[in-house]
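Entry:
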Amino acid sequence: MYPANTWHHKNHLGLLDAYRQYHEHVGVSAWPLILTGHGTEPGGTLAQAVAQRGLEQWVSLHGYVTEAELRGFGFSVST
């Protein structure tokens, strides 16, 4: 999981390129990549970048998520 808004300095495109290399190396046992934060909504520019890299099956985009939703992904949240 990468919880970050899609500001340029967060380098989501670099992350997608690295994840593609990881997935090519590991194959079907690769862990999925979950992206959250403003700008990661399905159908946006980042979704196009995911599709261009052929990663739609392994990368999920969720936009802004609440603390309860983060817990649903299996993460603990401290305040």
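The chain has a mean pLDDT of 89.
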